[in-house]
Known about the structure:
The structure is a homodimer of 334-residue chains.
Chain A: H1 4-11, H2 15-23, H3 30-43, H4 49-56, E1 61-66, H5 72-86, E2 90-95, H6 100-107, H7 109-112, E3 117-121, H8 127-131, E4 139-142, E5 152-156, H9 158-171, E6 177-180, H10 189-204, E7 214-215, H11 222-235, E8 241-244, H12 247-259, E9 269-273, E10 287-290, H13 293-309, E11 317-320, E12 323-325
Parallel strand pairs in A: 1-2, 1-3, 3-4, 4-5, 5-11, 6-7, 6-8, 8-9, 9-10
Antiparallel strand pairs in A: 10-12
Chain A binds a DNA duplex (30 and 30 nucleotides) through residues 1, 3-5, 13-17, 19-20, 23, 25-29, 32, 47-57.
Amino acid sequence: MVTMSDVAREAGVSVMTVSNVLSDRRPVGAPTRARVLAAVEALGFEVNLTARHLRAGRTDTVALIVPSFHDYFGEVADEIAPLVEAEGRHLVLERTSANPEHEMESLSVARLQLYDGVLLSVAALDRDQLDRVRTPKPIVLLGEHEVPDRFDHIKLANEEGARLATSHMIEGGSRRILALGAAYESAHKMTTDRRVGWETAHREAGLPVDERYVVPVTTYSSQGAREALLDVVASGLPFDGVFAVTDVIALGAVAALAESGLRVPDDVQLAGFDNLDVSSFVPPGITSIDPNHRGVAQDAVRLLHRRMADAAAPAEHIVAPVRLVVRGSTRGGR
Amino acid sequence: MVTMSDVAREAGVSVMTVSNVLSDRRPVGAPTRARVLAAVEALGFEVNLTARHLRAGRTDTVALIVPSFHDYFGEVADEIAPLVEAEGRHLVLERTSANPEHEMESLSVARLQLYDGVLLSVAALDRDQLDRVRTPKPIVLLGEHEVPDRFDHIKLANEEGARLATSHMIEGGSRRILALGAAYESAHKMTTDRRVGWETAHREAGLPVDERYVVPVTTYSSQGAREALLDVVASGLPFDGVFAVTDVIALGAVAALAESGLRVPDDVQLAGFDNLDVSSFVPPGITSIDPNHRGVAQDAVRLLHRRMADAAAPAEHIVAPVRLVVRGSTRGGR
DNA sequence: ATCCGGGATTTTAGCGTTAAACTAGGAGCA
DNA sequence: TGCTCCTAGTTTAACGCTAAAATCCCGGAT
């Protein structure tokens, strides 16, 4: 491996001068700089970032730690990356497997020290576990959990979004709306919040809330949703609307409805949550709640930068507003 | 920050003993070990991985460098992660923005040194640029480009897959099949390969190859595909089949066909490539070419481990087999 | 001629860890 | 007794870089 001292010897200068040329931290005379750069080129030197990090105490890298790499998180990550890069830092993704043990490990202060800041999407950690995380490292939490007050935190307006989607279908004429993927007790606080919004919409409309219409899914995927909804159809429970707690769930619902010969939106209205790209392309277009990924990404990065600049700043808790996007899967709107 | 020497002082031992307890590299007497662990606990010590990396020369981390975090790459990444973790290493994702400059930067040896091995998904680098990458770091290339022989490389059987999908639609009765998203000259070698497979299928069936049926997309997305296909419909060019070079493109096609009142598969058959999750749920199910993500992930990790174990091993070039998955968007099969 | 200011460059001193060499203190054995 | 061997622990010397302090050198002011 070529080190800085190799370059220094080749250029006939001290190691520190090489460092100064490369990092532009202190002025270096033009002829010297040229000789150093020539030596760098000749030897193919690349600075050892690990050594730089150890010495300089920063890594110029931010981590986004997510439960899984695909779908929702991939899309958000692609929004966050340019914002982080705009500040001259790198973004890397790490994964927790939505598994409490792994999430704890990724959270170990050891791993955190590799980064100047961390955006942590909390999927599987409860408040107690988070409370045990004691580190001066700047952290911003993303996600729908309850979190200790001392953390910066961004969550979506889950209840409000679910209420909007459900109310919209009620206005469109649905009277028996399933809450697909919702739950009463769940590791995912999010599904509970969205169920509450679904209930609120019913109450506001003076409609009864029937527990049979809360349909949990066994595995949290399109496939799980498809199966769960096919079971409902088979059971004979009448319904004329489906509020899917996420668009991934809604996608499974689309498949199940088509297989059951139910037309969308004529027989059954359908609305999802997350406004994934896919939702606008699946005919007839899936009405969804747009969480404004870009806005969330901007808030997240803003909070993180603030925290990195001032460790003592008071923690900020943001509830990101959501917005109903009406498409062909519901009646009304366009 | 609590360091090892703080722990050593607290436990009344040398720093080296603390290191030995934590890394299990050399035996330590039981009472001493207990005292050290108590001190670690009491002070909340976490090892500084940067220092460990500098000294030990390894990071126990593998990077997967991809053009973007969502869709295809997210799915592959989720397959790769457990395989890397099974060997006691971490996986992190970095992004290149499918932009040659950024990809070059991520490839700079400087950044590579942070990892014990790198899986690089080559989207925007041509052979010459890759040829300039000189590093002893274990690298496995993933993707459809031509790459220098000295690199380990895994690519899909693009031509074969495109041929399979197209032939299948020809057997199903289509005679005028668009190659949507394909190209003659393209930064994405993949789209050219798949166009060739589309041509081959025509030749094998004794059908003419009409250049007007190769429809490029302006932006590589569902939206771009939707617009391109709507333009074709507006132009009046008759067609009865669409081979979409990726499922993301196919999804845009589904939307455009539905908007144009064309029925799938009755009026137009449709097939994609990649077999994304979404393809099995979009009614009537999108016929697609399954690249076997899991198999590709396994091969990738196997090659990387081999390369990490033996830097001098001869480079391996794998063409991963693909398989046609027939769904409702084409006639025939089930 | 001497001193001074200030930019250019070097020297010093680690950052926190671990590989390798070394020491202390027994146990085992002839 | 004296020697070797072993185990448990310590000391030493980096890994490759950079912050901070020290030094050098030259033109201009006194």
